[in-house]
Amino acid sequence: MRKVMLLVVTLLLLFGITPAQDTFDVEGQGTGANQNEALTAAKRDALEKGIAMILLSGTEMERFRVKRDLVLRKATGAVKSYQILSQHTENDGVLKIRIKATISNSVMRDHLAAFQILIESMNKPRVMAIIQESNIDNDDPGNASAENAIIALLKEPYGFEIIDQKIISSVKSNKQKVTSLVGNDTEAAAFGTQFGAEVVISGSAISRRAESLSKEPDGMISVQADVAIKAINCATGHVIASASDHAAKMHISPQTAGTQAIAAAAEKCTKKMLDTLIKDWQDQANNGMPVTITVTNVPTFRVKNNVMQTLKGISGVIRVNERSWDARSGLLTIDIQYKGNPNGLAAKVDNYKLANGGGSLAVTGINGQEVTLSVQVL
């Protein structure tokens, strides 16, 4: 380890980055359907350039490319700040941003010493948490100790974007609805999609007074809690990860002890799922996900080819394969591989001009991994 540290420090010196200099600047650029998406891509580009500056050799760069998706959360704070140098909208409607990012020298150095590679996934999913919680036989819909603990951990230090929990609060007054969401992954995914979530964390939490023969301190009450949660990908409906854990707390108030125990168990569960959750999302961002496109108003072979060519030119689309086309009904079905999620794709495609001639594409529906388009003729 000492040898590795010496090599890292030596390389930093070669690039004019001294151990005393805690940050250095790197330019990055990215594109996206909106400013947030483009800025995320630009930050990631800047980080990767910073990594390339510090990695020890061409061999290490190869190792980095292979392992980049396995080391995801270690450098969350690597980008300390950024300055937008330029931004403009290109002809296809995609926003392009160039930034100067200030990257933490110490964060990168620490993790290079540990892993010889460093990657920060700046593209994290929007998350919603809905937990059915019972605290010492109190099933009040306002119980939110588990949800609050999950959200607090994901926001700091990991920087996930959280869907407004006021939405959840309004739903939890309907016990039957909550039970249905917690018990049905497909319904939970559809509910999350409805409010812009890309991952829903659902589950149950229960606390009860401990049945202990040991003598508790004067006035203190021991309470135990069990929490079981799972993370669901809203686009695909599949369970990304699941976890359960237990915690115990003591307090003069059993309700307070229960709240604290539930929060502690929920935090442990979230930490267990975190690696898998980030890896799943990163795999989707890097390798794409299958999306079925149904296009209406495609009456001729020429229009069909025009639509296919147009979709191939959209940023993030890796592969486009025709599944079927019926000239009589004007219905075209296409399978594509897209780096992102159906909502992001829809944002890019809507009002996107056709590659040849006039006309454009309009989004008429989104259902999970299925997007429906219509050819709009001028």
Task: List the keywords.
378 residues; alpha+beta; Rossmann fold; 3 domains; six-stranded mixed β-sheet; five-stranded mixed β-sheet; 11 helices; 14 strands; 38% helix; 33% strand; disordered N terminus
Structure description:
- The chain is α+β, with helices and mostly antiparallel strands and 378 residues long.
- The chain folds into 3 domains: 2-115; 126-284, TolB, N-terminal domain (Rossmann fold); 289-376.
- It is built from 11 helices and 14 strands.
- The strands form 3 sheets. A 6-stranded mixed β-sheet has the order 10-11-9-14-13-12. Strands 5-4-6-7-8 form a 5-stranded mixed β-sheet, with helices on both faces. A 3-stranded antiparallel β-sheet has the order 1-3-2.
- Strand 13 (360-367) and strand 14 form a beta hairpin.
- Helix 7 crosses helix 8.
- It is flat.
- The chain starts with a helix and ends with a strand.
- Residues 1-20, 69-73 and 113-122 have low confidence and may be disordered.
